[in-house]
Hints:
Blueprint: H1 2-18, H2 21-76, H3 80-92, E1 101-103, E2 109-112, H4 122-125, E3 135-141, E4 144-150, E5 161-169, E6 172-179, H5 186-194, H6 199-209, E7 213-218, E8 224-231, E9 235-238, E10 241-245, E11 251-254
Antiparallel strand pairs: 1-2, 3-4, 5-6, 6-8, 7-8, 9-10, 10-11
Amino acid sequence: MKGRFRRLWARLWPTIGGVSLRVKIMGIALLMIAVLGLGLTVQTRTTLARNLEREIEQRALSVARDLAFRSTDLILTNNLYSLYVLTRETVRNNEDVRYAFVVDLRGNLLAHSFEGGFPPDLLTANRVEAGEPYHREVLQTEEGLIQDIAVPVFGGRAGTVVSIILERRGDTVVLIVEDDGRGFDVKEAMAAQRRGHLGLSGMAERASLVGGRLTVESAPGAGAMILLEVPIGDGHRRGDRRFTRGKDGTDSGDDGR
Length: 257
């Protein structure tokens, strides 16, 4: 290799040595400009590629966080059909999203958007570790590279529903839902969700509209229990007033104070 380079240099040197100093300087300047232009082109392409990748990641993260937030109540109430509809709507309303799915704390599949069956390898392709706000993996697929974003539902505290009890106690219908999740601070969760979101505070407000009461018990590491009590019968409460339906079909009420 060195011998070939020496022979080539020996052939070129007489030609290079025969040109004037001015031509040599112009040649060196043109070479430097070419190298500089090539370097700037590579740097620009690299910067654009990084910015595009970052923009795609932020877009995917926004969609994943929205799905996780809207899944919380559905998981706590074990509403798997609505959860399935939610994953399908997420894909349908976002052209750049290829799939969406939700799993519980044990990694069991709860709902997905695939029409031809769920690819089992996806369950282990990307997992969020404890304390991570999200985790990103770039997956090689038949369609090319796909950014897979995993976001914990309710900070990873929405566990598997382990029991649902619905019963009548006198003039009251009682619904109890328990899960085995990581638990959460109830006061902190209620305060956070009042700032522009529904969640537990929205459930409590809807219960109060029919004269009911929502009780939430949870603590970090202790799962969660949701108790809903709704009065039924001819005389029932709506807000702060008690209403009784008359024979003519009209409602009459008093303040109940």
